Amino acid sequence: MNHQLLTVLFVFTIATGAVDSEQWLEPKYTWNVAEGKPTMQSSNYYGYNKGFSNLAVDGNPDDDWYHGSCTHTRNDVRAWWMVDLQATYTIYSVKVVNCRNSAPSRLSNFKIEVSNNMVNWILCHHQTGGLSSAWELYYCQASVSGRYVRIQLQGQNYLTLCEVEVNVHNA
């Protein structure tokens, strides 16, 4: 199919209302509200002077552990990482950058959850398998609002994250 025909089909589909343009189109503007915000994690991996929780929101998406921009917990049961957004937002999506050289398969079977009080958590997304690429963008299943965003493994393993973005959009 050539480009002109695809363009005509797209315009026709939108013009005739075959696709609800409000549901189909991405929001015009999204922004990351997590960068530079306070973080914490279930533990810090000992033996290295790196791997601290704040590295997931440093604005550096480098997925190489040896470059010093990734978090790392110990081999915890239900290891977790959390960011305090310092205000309540309706979360649109969460981008997670995995570590490519620190057993990338470790980041599997995890939940992304949102809370206002760090006690009651609302599910944004449950990833049952591993990531299919170096990073994934997870859309919350419904309008989820909160101040805290947590990524938590469902089994026992190390949790290593190289960047986390919490994206919101204008109403």
From TrEMBL:
It holds the Pfam family F5_F8_type_C_2. GO terms for molecular function: fucose binding; metal ion binding. Gene3D superfamilies: Galactose-binding domain-like (2.60.120.260). Coiled coil: none annotated. It comes from the Eukaryota. SMART domains: FTP. Keywords: Calcium, Disulfide bond, Lectin, Metal-binding, Signal. The keyword tRNA-binding does not apply. Residues 1-21 form the signal peptide. Acts as a defensive agent. Recognizes blood group fucosylated oligosaccharides including A, B, H and Lewis B-type antigens. Does not recognize Lewis A antigen and has low affinity for monovalent haptens. Homotrimer. This is F5/8 type C domain-containing protein.
